[in-house]
Amino acid sequence: MKFTIFSKKMQDLIKEKGFVEPTEAQKMGIPEIMKGSDVLIIAPTGIGKTETSMLPLFDKAYQEKTQPISVLYITPMRSLNRDLLGRLHWWSKKLDLEIGVRHGDTTQNERTAQREMPPNILISTPESLQALLVGKKMREHMKNIKYVVIDEIHELVTSKRGVQLSIALERLQELAGPFQRIGLSATVGDPELVASFLSKNAKIIRADADKKYDIKLEDPKPGPKDIQLSDELVIGPNTIARLRRLYDLIQSHRGALIFTNTRETAEVISSRLRKLDKDLKQEVHHGSLSKERRIQNEQKFKSEELKSIIATSSLELGIDIGSIDLVVQYLSPRQVARIIQRVGRSGHGVGKVSKGILISGEEDLFESAVIARHAREKIIEKIKIHDSAFDVLATQIVGLCMEYQDILDDKVYRIVKRAYPFRNLQRKDFTEVVRFLEALRILWINESQLGLRLSKRRKAWEYYFENMSMIPDSRNYKVISIVQGEPIGTLDAEFVSEHGKPGEKFVVSGRAWKIIQVDGQKVIVEPIDDIESAIPAWEGELIPVPFEIAQEVGKLRKELSKIKDDSNKENITEKYQLDKNSLNEMMEIISKQEFIPTNDTFMIEAYKDFVIIHSCCGSLTNDTIGKYLAAILTAKTGSAVNMKIDPYRIMIQSTARLDEVIKELKNAENIEDIITLSLERSSLFKHRFMQVAKRFGIVSRNTDFSRISIGKILSQYENSPAFNETMREIFLDKLDIENAKAILGKIKKGEIKLKIIENKENSISHLGELGLVHQFSEVMKPRMPEQEIFKAFKKRLLATRVRLVCAHCADYNLVREVQEIDEQPECPKCGSRLIGVARRNQDLTAIFKKRIKKKELTPEELKEFETVRRSADLVMVYGKKCIMVLAGRGIGPETAARILARLHPTQEKLLRDVLEAEKTFARTSIYWK
């Protein structure tokens, strides 16, 4: 196809823009779009998907003189809106077509202008479309829509945002009549599913067949300089070798985009690179940074002020951020679709090879090698969608009631059923959701001869606009070390909901911590050495490794264990494109194992109070089997069972013996029912339920969960659509019942063999050790010695500001840091040593003066007076040591007297007791606040 398919005006503009030959996507896509077909265009980043969809639509709008708004362009991110507006503005200006953007940041003046003078083309988000459909004036303009483009549709299909959009498009069709649908997607594993999601008649146009990916796997080895640097930067030599390789790659390329799997790793890499070279122009980019900082870093990278950005998935989507000639993935990307999307950011153009390097090491090499092979061969994992999501259904039913004021339930059901995610929606489930909305006083239901008539109640308007976004509310908790008394990191709400119980251990900011108490939005913790039992705090943000990838890792282990000569090595090296270092490292790991767990043989070993099941089944399948075993063992032993997993292991910590665990693994049954029962009582279920409850309008979006009884709400709505939706969501996002059942069935039949390893006392296999400890090695700092803990604690106490009051004359009253106070303080006014200690913000002068003048005190004043007077008695006896104890959080005169009475032989022993008193306060204060 040449550009002659367009009008003369458009052909002239194409020449002026400098387009000579159409890209593959344009050759295949433009004729179909000009014919009016619904199309799904699958193409990699940077080969003109946007122009493929918009050039024909610009030309049609220009030739047909369509009424505004005739073209709706939907993108999943506001940043893409900004980027798009810049790219499309030139064409619209030349064709005398107005183009506008509508999203949450659009000003009131712009909204008013769009209502009065609507643009021909509107760029928007799925959320803003919800508002447009119920706006009185904007609805009139949207009756003119003839073309809808959905950008990055692969990102939307798998989320509830996409489910919401699917019904919104059917509502729009009900308003405007049939319109042409165009979806733009990166390479996906299920093109047919994505096409069905877009339209019943969508043609799939694959313009990704010729795209080449040059993905190499590297395992940098440490040299003498790395070992020396390792001591200076306090991290392992292997990690230093990887960082030095990263540094060299950044220096030798024009623009390098470095991807990591977690925010914590991104920050660690950036800080260590800064220590290697403080002048290296690099910054981080992740979801915890402010929007302004992210945009600033993008712009600096685009203008080449920065040589590199170290990012998480926050930079995966197709916003054009400049001259990237290399993408580096630091450790395994965990999914094939991720590495293709990420590496596609380099070689951003037609005919260019996207160049990527996977820097890996140790056990991570196996997974990285498998994923790199799948990416080169474009073997991409299947995607999952939210079928019949009840909370989305609820908001859309209310939206239709707002559009039509009064609507038959049969009509609503027909509109909803046209949307692909609701193709299997049962009428009884639909009616149950409608009745539920009536019970929540959001809808009226009136019986009529034609069926149920639905109309909105007063609450509907607020409910609908509160729930236009299906993105879960993200609340971060500050992690406060009880030693320093300062924030040392953050945890997301889902992690806290699942693991935020006193005594739980986790890793954050490169150290292991134990939770003392969760108090409001703060998690009070103390440092510990027990890395084995700790959970990585970033596990919530880790992308799950698919079953198929983990199974091939098992097969690769098996192949490597059978290597007899160099010809076998060559076959594997060629298949996985391994360098010499990578192959040697894998072979060394295999050689350290007495027995190799593979895809069809599990290895089970005991270590201390752990049972480790080595199972190459991926994240979700292992989590499903692990949750089943934990539930069964908890019921049988009557004591708590801790469980953590990775894609290759299930690690159970309990009082159960090894043979008991094996017995349950071999005779598993009713797995779905048992997991359902255990989930209902879990913190994860409570957290997810409250998110769903918000989307149903059971609770408001701004509800403070610390002030309500979640358990009471749960029992009230048991077996309701909200309860059932929560269970469906968790089963889809967090579990893989199908593969778990298949694996357990194979174990029962003997098709998967179990190899039991009898370890000597306190010994563990190499792979077992990697699972328990070394999974944290990339970001772990050396353990904090006790001396360092007490040094940091003492520093905090001495820097605490307290108020000193003379209990004798009351004329002396000032705030000082503990370290500034004399060993035996006395009043400079009257010379008394009766110096009381009060809170910094507590001025008690008036109370003391009333007491001196023998005036009557109120009960509250008397209580305050007696507390400070008691502290003055203690200061007179113990001096500054007493003031340091009283500077501890939650320590009053009674507790201080008990501590000081022990007459500690060393200051360290005194500080230990003060720290224990603070922990007790942190644990108990939540109950009597």
Short description:
The mean pLDDT is 87. It is globular and about 100 Å long. The protein is 48% helix and 16% strand.
Question: Mind explaining what this structure looks like?
Answer:
This protein is α/β, with parallel strands linked by helices and 929 residues long. Helices cover 48% and strands 16% of the residues. The protein has six domains: 204 residues, 3-Layer(aba) Sandwich (Rossmann fold); 164 residues, P-loop containing nucleotide triphosphate hydrolases (Rossmann fold); 77 residues, Orthogonal Bundle (Arc Repressor Mutant, subunit A); 61 residues, no CATH class; 185 residues, no CATH class; 143 residues, no CATH class. It has a seven-stranded parallel sheet with strand order 3-4-2-5-6-1-7, with helices on both faces. Strands 8-13-12-9-11-10 form a six-stranded parallel sheet, sandwiched between helices. A hairpin with a 5-residue loop joins strand 17 and strand 18. The chain is globular and about 100 Å long.
